[in-house]
Amino acid sequence: MTTPAMDFTLTRDAFGHLSLTDAAGERHDHVQVVRAFPIAAPDEGISVLSAEGHELAWITHLNQTDPATRQLIDETLAARDFMPVLKRLKSVSSFATPSTWDVDTDRGPTRFVLRGEENIRRLPDEMLMIADEHGIQYLIRHLPALDAHSRKLLDRFL
Amino acid sequence: MLTNTMATADTASTPLLPDPWHTYLQSALAPDESIEAWLTLDLDDTLRFSDSVLVLTGRQLIACATDGQIAAWPLDATFELHAHDHAGVGSLTLQDDTARRAIWRFTLTQNPAALRFSRRFDQVLDALREGREAGPVPAVLCAQCQAPLPPDEDDCPACSGSIDQPPSTWTLFRLWRFARPYKGQLLLGFLLTLAATGATLVPPYLTMPLMDNVLIPYQNGQQIDTSLVVLYLGGLLGSAVVAWGLGWARTYILALFSERIGADLRTTTYDHLLRQSLEYFGNKRTGDLMARISSETDRICVFLSLHALDFATDVLMIIMTAIILASINPWLALVTLVPLPFIAWLIHLVRDRLRTGFDKTGRVWGEITSVLADTIPGIRVVKAFAQEKRESQRFREANRVNLEANDKLNRVWSVFSPTVALLTEVGLLVVWAFGIWQVANNDITVGVLTAFLAYIGRFYGRLDSMSRIVSVTQKAAAGAKRVFDILDHASSVPEPTNPVHLKGVQGQITLANVGFRYGNRAVLRDVDLVIQPGEMVGLVGHSGSGKSTLVNLMCRFYDVSEGAIRIDGTDVRSVPVAEYRQHIGLVLQEPFLFFGTIAENIAYGRPDASRDEIVAAARAAHAHEFILRLPQGYDSLVGERGQGLSGGERQRISIARALLIDPKILILDEATSSVDTETEKEIQKALDNLVRGRTTIAIAHRLSTLRKANRLVVMDRGRIVEEGDHDTLIERGGFYWRLYEAQQRQVEGEVLTPTITPAMPSAHTAGIAAEPALK
Ligand SMILES: Nc1ncnc2c1ncn2[C@@H]1O[C@H](COP(=O)(O)OP(=O)(O)OP(=O)(O)O)[C@@H](O)[C@H]1O
Ligand SMILES: [Mg+2]
């Protein structure tokens, strides 16, 4: 697929805010870049929203952007999307909730408190989303791919 | 140098830096430099979990990384620190007037601390700009959430009670709490059990003399002593009759007792559930909650009435048998006990598996009921989109998971029982062998061996049934755990520990710096609003701007995440919830009618209201006439969710409901959104009279509804963006003006092409509509 010409440019100012200049040459400050499907398809459907929350641009796929823009978007999204992926459950404080979980994630080891079993949600394709008491969401990409120990612990809550 | 700090800053909130940060920072601080605030950051730049600290002194901002690396920014009058959060990650940005200088990130766990830090930063910088000392940290704020503490209270009403402890595993014993009121019955039941068990142990004992004194002598050529036979047989019959009578009394008493416990458990759990906040209900699935309260409590009840009783009997029986056996012949008794350790070991082996298995089946069962609870109320949508197949598939899937869980469990279980049976058979064999050997050695008589075998038959039989109880016990324990899960959940809208009682509410509502999030989603930010007693405030703004949320907070359906809401100057969190809500009349966006008559529904908030009062409230809400058109008038039954009434009719009933309690504060969330303009005007007229003297907060999309409002508050994406009366706001030409203009255009359009307004319910349609509910 050829890269279609983007009809806007993104820039970052000294304050770290993004600005978008659209095809008509109009400049929008403090724009936000968000993913439409952060879990299901992180690289597809990127939207640029104005400070008022209106959509300014839609990017069907990240690979349709030029390298500079892509880097800008990647950086912004990296600092914005926080959904640690659970790699391993080391231990749980109890099988009754609330329970403190000691885990390894793709963002390093941490621990969190699970309020109740209902905070573990099943997503399609054996994916699990676990929300801790502060609303941080941990993702398990593929349940069968976890090691046996983690699965055994987890099974007590499912 | 840190002790120095103690002297200058306020002791109550002096930040004492823990190690290793303390050590790392030594070199960066001047000897007389005091720490004003510090904050643990649990994320690094790349959003990986890693601890570091941010320290504010009177002169500089210092970031100290995990490895002790230090970066410092000498304070400058142009500095600003901005807190922001998104999707669970908070950030603090340091910038001056030309560029961003640094950004730090943390999880929301640290958010209250970060806000405190940033506030302190502002205070310090303000002082710096004015060239004075930053005063002590104001100590009246809650250290955890910045909410001002109510006078005479140490615990912050927002934070106390938020610390949970996991429930212990010996959950079944916690049922004692419910058994305590029935101590007397329980004791009586126990004594009866003891006596009944004793009575059943008499017959085998009698076989011993029967054998040794009657049968064996006869075999050896002596005459049968008839009187002895009569005596022994009489004893056998007598003990059987006594055992029957005692068994009956004990079963009856204990069954009564366990039913009572079950009922108490159920009602207590339900009561507790009702006290939970909306947040709790929002997170739970209805079906699961229903399963817990109905079937789990029932399971516990059955356990108590049947199995726990059997178990107690079995234990007694085994102990008594063991004593009797030992008293007859200790050696033989010892041999009989051989299989016991094996069985104990086996029980231990499977117990955990069974419990987790049953716990799981309980959860899966909740899932099945959840599917039902989801689909049945939503049946219209299911049918409208022809998704019956899909829903059926979902139900099938839930059942499949249930089967799977049960199959796994049954695999363990099916091995267990036969194994115990095998062990007992082997035990019996050992006793026979050992017994014959002893008889041959003339150590015991044949009678003794027969008695032993008779006892052992029972003994092992009991062991077998005891092992069966492992399963029910684990089932009940799993059920108890799920019930106690509800009971242990402290409401997130906690009752205050030292309640403040409101005397004569004026109706002034103050929102101070209110922030609120659903989970990690910040919905309200920095909302400051003072509503005077008797004032009518209209809340307007786009859909999703947080109007209903604000109202939910005012009703204390949720508690604020930051800041405070005060009524007449008292924090609402320090007022008992029920007492507070008495003063609030609420009409919701989605009106809900309970199963019952219309009169009962109107009088829901004040069941003692007289008929006249009910009618007056209905008149005021313009519900009177349509109610009269129903075949049974005020006695018409309305069903689940008010089926059989139109949306507008339901709304008017809920307005009447709110008016009847004569509240000081009236909250109307889109109260008239589903009635036609004509009816709305009429209700409006009625409301105009009624809002007089009450603090009223009205939300409406149709801006014309809010003509009478003293003040309009315009919200946008969780913030208040404009405030003032209609004319001022129109003049300003801002947000409100745009909303208004858009609606005006629409109204003009409507005049040209009249849209179909929901018709006033005619007697005919209303009659039909009411019918389903009457069946
Ligand atoms: N229970 C909830 N959990 C999570 N987010 C919620 C919940 N209720 C509302 N929200 C979100 O909070 C925001 C504000 O919702 P709110 O109901 O207060 O809007 P509103 O101003 O009353 O809108 P409307 O005019 O449509 O009634 C919305 O973005 C909504 O998605
Ligand atoms: Mg709303």
Automatic annotation (TrEMBL), chain B:
GO terms for molecular function: ABC-type oligopeptide transporter activity; ATP binding; ATP hydrolysis activity. Residues 509-742 form the ABC transporter domain. SUPFAM superfamilies: ABC transporter transmembrane region (SSF90123), P-loop containing nucleoside triphosphate hydrolases (SSF52540). Pfam families: ABC_membrane, ABC_tran. Its main location: membrane. It is a multi-pass membrane protein. PANTHER family: ATP-BINDING CASSETTE SUB-FAMILY B MEMBER 10, MITOCHONDRIAL, ATP-DEPENDENT PERMEASE MDL1, MITOCHONDRIAL. This is ABC transporter ATP-binding protein.
